[in-house]
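Researcher: We're teaching a course module on how sequence relates to structure. For the next exercise, students receive a sequence and then see the predicted structure as C-alpha cells, so they can try to spot secondary structure elements on their own. Here is the exercise chain.
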Amino acid sequence: MHLPDLQGLFESVKRLHSLLTDEYEALKAQKLDAFEALQQEKISLIETLSSSDIAQNPDQPTDPKRLEELAKHPLWNDITHILEQCKKSHQRNELLISKQLDAIKGALSTLQNQDPAGSLELYTKLGRVKSSRRSILSDDA
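Model: And here is the predicted structure for the students to work with:
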C-alpha cells in the first residue's frame, strides 16, 4: 500500500500557512504590492495541494485500509492542524479585506456627497448604535 509523500505535503502546508500570515501583514499595513506578489505562490501551493495523492486518488478513492494507515501516520495530525490554522487565517484575511472595502466604499460615498447614513453606523458614547433619524427641524435652523 502506497502512502503519499506526507513530508512534502507537510512542508507545502507550512508554507501556505506562512504565506497567509504574510498576506495578513501586507493587508494590515495596506501594502497592496506585497499582497499581490504573494498571490501567485499561494495559488501554486493550493494547486499542488489539491492535486496531491490525498485529494485525488482515482485508483483507491475510498480504500479504508489506506485511510486508516494515513490517519495513524504521525505527520497527519500536524498536517490537519496546520490546515485548520490555514482555514482560520484565510477567513481572517477575507474579513480584513471586506472591512477595508467597506471603509473605502464609505469614504467614496462621503467624497461623492452621497447619503452615508445608509451604510455608515454611528455609535453613542455608551457604544450603542445611534439612530439615523434626522430631526424634522434640522433643515430649518
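Model: If you want an answer key for the exercise: Residues 74-111 form the longest helix (38 residues). Residues 135-141 have pLDDT under 50 and may be disordered.
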